[in-house]
Write a structure and sequence with these properties.
With 132 residues, this protein is of the alpha+beta class. The protein folds into 2 domains: 67 residues, SH3 type barrels; 64 residues. Helix content is 51%, strand content 23%. The chain has 6 helices and 5 strands; from the N terminus they run H-H-E-E-E-E-E-H-H-H-H. Helix 4 runs antiparallel to helix 5 and helix 5 runs antiparallel to helix 6. The longest helix is centred in the C-terminal third of the chain and has 17 residues. The chain is globular and about 45 Å long.
Length: 132
Amino acid sequence: MKQVLIALVLLFATPPLLWADQIIDTRGLPYDGVVKNYRDFTVFLQVGGTGELIKKKLWQIRRMEIAGNGAFNQAEQLLEKKKFTEAIVSYDKAHRAARTKAAWIKTMIRDRRYGALVAAGKIKRAVEDWLE
């Protein structure tokens, strides 16, 4: 019984350690959990606590934070502040670092960078990126 109680206390006292990723949607609602996949412009997040798998389209997401991906997180913060050129530099850095990770991570970073390129008026590069 004591072990169960300790486990429950740890579970509820340290959720950021267990569910380190976060999505904030365009309405400002945060979703904590673990990003499991990305395809067809959709992020799949397993919500901490319930284990429910939610899907959010890229255009429904204001900002994401992915544990252990500092350059991507910085790019997301800069994008939210509408510092598009700086965000692009951080997305580039995150994309280079992601080359050794799952393909869906690279694709997600590329698609987020595409939005920053368009917002910055860098249409030629956005098209080149898209066709790559």
